[in-house]
Amino acid sequence: MDFNNRLKHYLVFVTIIIIFVFGSSVYSYALFVERNNSSISQNSSQGDWLLADNYDRKGYRYENFLRKKDSLKILKQVYQHLMNIKNIDYYEISNQDFIYTKKFQGSKSFINGKGNQKIDDVLITPLKSMQVSELYAKRQNLDQSIQTGEFFKRSAYKKTSNQIVPVVAGANYKHIFKLNSIVENSYLATKNIRCKIIGFLDKKTNVKVDEEIINLDNYLIMPSIKLSPQDTLDFKQILLSDKCEGYLHYDNKNEYHQVVQQVKRIVKETGYEYIIPPEEKHNLYNLSIGQTFLVFLSSALAFLLVIRKLYRDHIIKTEKGLFFVTFKNLTVYLGWLFSAFVISQGILLALYKNHQNIFIRTRLTTVLFFLAVGCYLTLLSVLRWKKED
Questions:
Q1: Residues 6+ apart with CB under 8 A from 136
Q2: 203, 217 in Cβ contact below 8 A?
Q3: Dist. CA 65–CA 240, nearest whole Å
Q4: Exposed / middle / buried, residue 258 (Cβ in 10 Å: 0-12, 13-18, 19+)
Q5: 166, 164, 92, 88: which is closest to 131 by C-alpha?
Q6: pLDDT tens digit string along 147-172?
Q7: pTM for the whole thing?
Q8: Which residues are listed as membrane-spanning (predicted)?
């Protein structure tokens, strides 16, 4: 085959690879959008958006981020951004368990998981708990639901882990804890803090979080605490991570789109990786799952045809040994496949620079697929060579 024909075939091959990568990526993205929309409320008229990081979902643990030298700085920046979003309420709400460090005498209805268990020779019981910010408590009128004692004063939200933290208990706790009693909490499973029961809620006190009604009869309510200079680096990181995964509240569609743009801005300015759900039910190209599957199927058929052509054009007829034939064919196939893949990635990422996650999501899968194709074609070529030999 002369150079001009080889170049022409290669350009056709690159074009088909671009179509194939495009088709498979768009279909994968459409499935991602569909799954995302099935787990995220599409009620953009009113609701609460729970912020969540995207680290563990990418295949590496959150600890990798925390090991970075500037991780604490980034978390502080993220938190400041969240607190300063104009016209949008940010609720610090956390359902971290209250880790009771003595023998618990209550029923299982108070417990998340297993009670009175020993871990490292320490007896603990994870109790249902909710940590709330002053703004959220005010919006839910919790100060008007006190049966005995009192609710948090403004100073309660300025407490640190080195101080006694006030706790308001649900109505069913009246038979377990006494008013003004001190209880210990292995807070965030990291640091032991002392808490004081300052009040009990009315029976059947409820709060609303993202359309979900939560009854607080079996809950312990804590105020969101502040960082302290005396806190360890690990504790500061974990506490800030928790404080950065609250809820952004919106009351109408315009506010919902404003929330989306604000979170995108935080991601861009800080580098912190939040999950940002699609604003619409459709993917980037407004195609249904069935339509994107047809795009993928047609591109896959085109890819198979060009692979067949490549296979026929590169059968090596030689008197040299098996190792030479295998190596030569594998080099040819993988060279064509990966060079075409690199070119296709460059072109598509340049064209869709604002939506690079579409193609980055499937990059590793596509590389492994091409590697398998190259090895398979090499095996076929070797078997055919042996047969003809």
A1: 91, 92, 93
A2: yes
A3: 13
A4: middle
A5: 92
A6: 999 999 999 999 999 999 999 999 99
A7: 0.62
A8: 12-32, 293-311, 332-352, 364-383
pLDDT tens digit sequence for 370-387:
788 778 777 777 777 667
What pairing do the DSSP bridges indicate for beta strands 220-223 and 129-132? parallel
What does 12-75 look like in DSSP terms, one character per residue? Answer: HHHHHHHHHHHHHHHHHHHHHHHHHHHHS----SSEEEE--BSSGGGTS-HHHHHTSTTHHHHH
Nearest to 283 by CA among 19, 15, 3, 32: 32
Dig out the tokens for 20 from the structure: 């194939």
What is the amino acid identity at position 234?
Answer: D
Sheet holding 247-250, edge to edge: 47-50, 247-250, 89-91
Residue 320 structure tokens: 């040299």
Which two three-digit tokens encode residue 356? Answer: 């690079």
CA nearest neighbour of 197 among 158, 161, 150: 150
